[in-house]
Amino acid sequence: MKVVVTRRAEAGNRAARVLCRLAGAAVLALVAFPSLAGGIAAAGAEVTTGSIPAENSALLAYSGRMAGDDARTRVIIDFDKRPDISVHYVANPYRILIDLPETVFALKKDEFAARGLFTDVRFGAMAEGRSRIVLTADRPASVTSTEVREEEGGKSFRLVIDTGIVTEGAFAELVNGQKWKEATTSVASADGAVVPGGAVEPGRFVIAVDAGHGGIDNGALGVETGTHEKDVTLAFAKEIAAALNKLPSTEAFLTRDNDEFLSLPQRVQLARSRNANLLISIHADTLRQKDIRGATVYTISDKASDSLAANLAARENLSDEIAGMPLEGEPPEVADILIDLTRRETQGFSVGLAKQVVDAFEGEVKLINNPHRYAGFRVLKAPDVPSVLLELGFLSNKEDEQLLIDPAWQKKVAGLIAEAVGRYRATVVANGG
User: Fold this and answer.
1) What pTM does this model have?
2) Which residue, 174, 163, 121, is CA-closest to 141?
3) 3-state SS, residue 363
4) pLDDT tens-digit profile of 238-259?
5) Do 117 and 163 contact (CB within 8 A), yes or no?
6) Can you tell me the distance from the alpha carbon of 132 to that of 103, in angstroms, rounded to the nearest whole number?
7) Three-state secondary structure along 199-229?
8) Of 219, 213, 215, 210, residue with least CA distance to 188
9) Which of 2.60.40.420, 3.30.565.10, 3.40.630.40, 3.40.190.10 is the CATH number of 187-430?
10) β-pair partners for 132
C-alpha cells in the first residue's frame, strides 16, 4: 500500500484555528473525561475523549468525517502528530480495520458518522499502546489508497483513506492473504501488577475476576449519566478482587486492570492459564424496558432459560465482532468425550456458585425475577473452570444506574460476593471437590 506524504503550508490564520481545535480537544481530554483512558467511542455516542499520558506520547485524533456513496467513500481524520497505520480485513460482516498506535479520540458524532459504504464506525483502545478504527460495510470493500498530508508546517497531519467496493472473491483474497494476529494479553493482578501464567501455589483458591467490555467495546450506556458499562465493570472488578483477596488462601486476579479490549476467548484462556478455580464475569447491561431493575446471575447452557437471557447472551457475544476480531469456531477439544464430561461437572459447580451468590444477595441487593438464569455466553465456555456472569443491575434503569456508580454500593456488593465464594468453597471442600 502506497503512503503519500505532502507538505502544504497555508496562511497563519488557518494555523491558529488548527491550534485552537487541538487545544480545545486536549482540554476535553484532560478535564471533561479524565476517567476514560484511551478515548473510546462508538458512532452515535457523544464526544468521547481520553486522558493524555504524562509524556504526551499518544496521538490525538481531534477531527474526522466521511463522504461518499454506495460505491466509494473517503475517510478523513486529523491528528496532532503523524499517524502510523496498518490496514486489515475481517469478514462476517465485512470490516476494514485501521490499526493505530495509542490514540486519544476527540471526534464528534455529527462529524465522524458512518456514511456511504459504511453502516457503522467504532474506534478506541485495543490494548496498551494500540488503538483501532473499525469500519463495517454491508458489502465487500477495500482500501484503495491512503495518504498522510502534513498540514500547517507540521502542526497537524491529515489521514485520508479512500475505499471502494470489491467482489466477494477479491475480499476473500484480502482476508486470506494477510499475515497478522491479535496481540496476546498478560494477566493483571488486583493491584495492577502483571501476573504470568503457570503454576499456582498448592492450596490456593484462584479466582479470575473479569470486567466485561473495555477499550473499543464500551458496552451499555447509562440512561442518566452516560456512564459506559466498561467503566462500571472495571470499578466493580477491582472491588471484588480486593474483597476476595481478604479470604484465607485465596488469590483473585483481574483479566484486565485498565481500559483495554480483551476478546472473549482471551478472557477464558486467561482464567485457564492460571488454573483458576472460578471465573466471575461482571456486567451491567441495558434493556428496552427501563422499569426492570435488579441483579441476575447467569450460568452456561446450550438452551436459554428465557428470551431475556437469550437476547442478553446474543448481545454480549457480539463483543469480538464490535472490535473487529475474526470470529473463530470452537477448538477441536470440544468434541472430546472427556472434555464433555468435564464440562458437565463444571456446569454443576457453576450452578452451585450461582445459588450461593443469589442467597448472599437476598435481602441485601435487589434481584430480578428468577435471578438465576442461563444462556450460551461465550465467556462462560471454559470446560474446566466453573464460571458465572453477574449482571449487577441495568444501566437503563435510573435507580440501578445510581447504585452501580456508587463506590459504597460497589464495596458492599463486593463483600457479599466474597461471602458467597467463601461458602461455595466450603461446600465444595466438604463434598470432596
Assistant:
1) 0.68
2) 163
3) coil
4) 999 999 999 999 999 999 999 9
5) yes
6) 8
7) CCCCCCEEEEEEECCECCECCCECCCCCCEH
8) 210
9) 3.40.630.40
10) 99, 124
